[in-house]
Specification:
CATH architecture of the largest domain: 3-Layer(bba) Sandwich
Distance between the termini: 16 Å
Largest sheet: 7 strands, mixed
Number of strands: 17
CATH topology of the largest domain: FAD/NAD(P)-binding domain
CATH superfamily of the largest domain: FAD/NAD(P)-binding domain
Number of helices: 6
Bound molecules: NADP nicotinamide-adenine-dinucleotide phosphate
Strand content: 25-35%
Number of domains: 2
Length: about 300
């Protein structure tokens, strides 16, 4: 039994762990795989203050973990399958059957990349379809690839892949990117980038991937585009399947919690990308982590 179990070891989770541990609470972090969450798979982070030359996402994740552990937080590997959050003792059950109990729980389980929803997409994962340019980009060195999406992830993927690949084609369903203006210059400077506007990928062909079918959503015209890889960057879905029926979620599945990170269940707090919020960045995740730890401490001291 810990004072607090934190579900998820991304920036929100390890910041919550740092603050909880420094407050003298016995604190554990449950992480499915590696520290960092989505930040951990980001090549280079330029918008987290304090690093004038930027910093690698995985490097920052390791530093956050180490810092929280310096104050006594522990990390356990586990993929949470089930929760029981009502009542004074909260229980978290992992896929391997291990059970973790705490007086308070901080949900910092983030979000995962959304799929395009094409029939063979999952089968082609690792055989030409990827959701992480920094993890898989090197396999496509000197090749032609497609990036799908129009947000910050798609823009960051293009900038990263353009340095490795022979050609990058960005396919976006509208005629304007939603990516931040910070990407305007690097996108303009990528000489091997072509942007295909108003278009969607309707099929992925070959095994491994050899081409995609593109359809212009305005004219209805379709054409094949040869490529070796497809990087899908069409947003995220929150990792909340195991929370359905246990805490209030919004229509998209994000945890209903305000700036105070309090959820519908007393003693359960939500921090970072898993929470309904207007801006999902490392800096807003760490801020949530600190608030959630503060609220958990307040909850525990009032018991
Ligand atoms: P996002 O901002 O939600 O953008 C998703 C993009 O995919 C949008 O352009 C959307 O088109 C398109 N899209 C959605 N569903 C689609 C579908 N089924 N088929 C084709 N296109 C589809 O997601 P994101 O870029 O992954 O970013 C997620 C969060 O992480 C954001 O808060 C973002 O700011 C943050 N992030 C920040 C950075 C950074 O600051 N450097 C880097 C990466 C991510 P529409 O534009 O038409 O909606």
């Amino acid at each position: 039994m810990q004072d607090v179990w934190i579900v998820g070891g991304g920036p929100a989770g390890y910041t919550a762990a740092l603050y909880c541990a420094r407050a003298g609470l016995s604190t554990g972090v449950l992480e499915a795989l590696m520290p960092g969450g989505q930040m951990g798979t980001t090549d280079h982070i330029d918008n987290y203050p304090g690093f004038p030359d930027g910093i690698g996402g995985f490097e920052l994740a390791q530093a956050m973990q180490k810092q929280a552990e310096r104050f006594g937080a522990v990390t356990k590997t586990g993929n949470v399958r089930e929760v029981s959050l009502d009542g004074e003792v909260k229980r978290v059950v992992c896929g391997d059957g291990s059970v973790y109990e705490a007086k308070a729980v901080i949900l910092a389980c983030g979000a995962s990349p959304r799929e395009l929803g094409l029939p063979n997409e999952r089968a082609l994962r690792g055989r030409g379809v990827s959701y992480c340019a920094t993890c898989d980009g090197m396999f496509y060195r000197g090749k032609e690839v497609v990036v799908v999406g129009g947000g910050n992830t798609a823009a960051a993927d293009v900038v990263y892949l353009a340095k490795l690949c022979k050609k990058v084609t960005l396919v976006h369903r509208r005629d304007k990117l939603r990516a931040s203006g910070a990407y305007t210059k690097p996108l303009k400077e990528a000489e091997n980038l072509e942007i295909v506007w108003d278009s969607v990928v309707t099929a992925i062909e070959g095994e491994p991937v050899e081409s995609v079918q593109l359809q212009n959503v305005k004219t209805g015209e379709s054409r094949a585009l040869p490529c070796s890889g497809v990087f899908v960057a069409v947003g995220n879905v929150p990792n909340t399947a195991f929370l359905k029926g246990h805490v209030a979620l919004d229509e998209q599945g994000y945890v209903q919690a305000g700036e105070d990170t309090r959820t519908s269940v007393p003693g359960v707090f939500a921090a970072g990308d898993v929470r309904r919020k207007p801006l999902r960045q490392v800096v807003t995740a760490v801020s949530d982590g600190a608030v959630a730890a503060h609220m958990a401490e307040e909850y525990l001291s009032a018991r």
